[in-house]
Amino acid sequence: xxxxxxxxxxxxxxxxxxxxxxxxxxxxxxxxxxxxxxxxxxxxxxxxxxxxxxxxxxxxxxxxxxxxxxxxxxxxxxxxxxxxxxxxxxxxxxxxxxxxxxxxxxxxxxxxxxxxxxxxxxxxxxxxxxxxxxxxxxxxxxxxxxxxxxxxxxxxxxxxxxxxxxxxxxxxxxxxxxxxxxxxxxxxxxxxxxxxxxxxxxxxxxxxxxxxxxxxxxxxxxxxxxxxxxxxxxxxxxxxxxxxxxxxxxxxxxxxxxxxxxxxxxxxxxxxxxxxxxxxxxxxxxxxxxxxxxxxxxxxxxxxxxxxxxxxxxxxxxxxxxxxxxxxxxxxxxxxxxxxxxxxxxxxxxxxxxxxxxxxxxxxxxxxxxxxxxxxxxxxxxxxxxxxxxxxxxxxxxxxxxxxxxxxxxxxxxxxxxxxxxxxxxxxxxx
Length: 431
Ligand code: SF4
Known about the structure:
The chain is of the alpha/beta class. Among the domains are: 4-121, 3-Layer(aba) Sandwich (Rossmann fold); 136-246, Transcription Regulator spoIIAA (2-Layer Sandwich), CATH 3.30.750; 372-424, CATH 2.40.50.140. The protein has 14 helices and 18 strands. A 5-stranded parallel sheet has the order 2-1-3-4-5, sandwiched between helices. The radius of gyration is 22 Å and the shape is globular. Bound molecules: iron/sulfur cluster.
């Protein structure tokens, strides 16, 4: 009889990539995926602990799974994986006694060994098992873990120190994805420009771009997430030089005042941050830059927040991912720094950033009206195609494209969140 598995995922792109990798491991064992947990023999809950909301969602889903398992008299294997699982699992086991196995992020073997102890994984599971793509785009983790220990962040405790995958490994995976129809890969790392530092031989992210650039079938290369201190001129120049590498940088600033950056232990000053954004814009003209901001961090006064607001106004990012601070158990801030900004103030600041960014994004996107953008076709909805421009803008358009194709779209209307247009058959040069 076929064994079915279901994987539920919350959190960042790295978690999505981990779930895809785990699915590839299940497939290797002959298991079949199912969209319905009710039809599964094994359910894996791949969790995120970066925000309280993500944890709440996982607990609520696990409540549903507990009932499902009871209805089936225990005949359902449950695994909890990801950033909610620390090195010590006693508290989790106490809270979730019906769960069969707990595994830290990327501890795939722990999950597989628990649900299929007889399986021979051959010790080569990690480097030789590639996820099955589900569309024309795919995430490829290239560096795991993080060494930065920002005071608010749980990631280094869960994902460990920075470890880069060998260049050959990544090349093999990208070749496999290209043969399977993938046209765009996004190279992932918590701090992606740290790629190669642990090799100690000077290899960097630019070398990785060059190594995968000429793989047949790959039309676009993206990369996430940038950490300002790991940025280098060489990496920025490689983005400008290599036609397949898209001109989009996601460089989290997190706060606009040096006092708060210091409390966060981000490891850079606003002046250094500004320098790198300016270098990016000088070397890669017409690029887009997005950022992440946390409002209401410990000790953030009105004046500190005003500095963040001013910085966003000055640097005019294409997109800002904003979150209100909430202490995460196990982090330095949770242990040592008072969460002293009232929730109402946090929400006011969050809304102020959203409002400001909506205006800026509206203005920036409006300048694209009438231009022709290269769009990689990713999907179709309500009779329109959907894809992204090289600068990562979502584009909805009418036309006659195939998924995975890169087409030219003339932009006819814009909003803060997307561009709309029609496919054109003849390319016009874009300034
Ligand atoms: S750089 Fe800071 S915020 Fe980003 S994953 Fe590492 S510790 Fe967390």
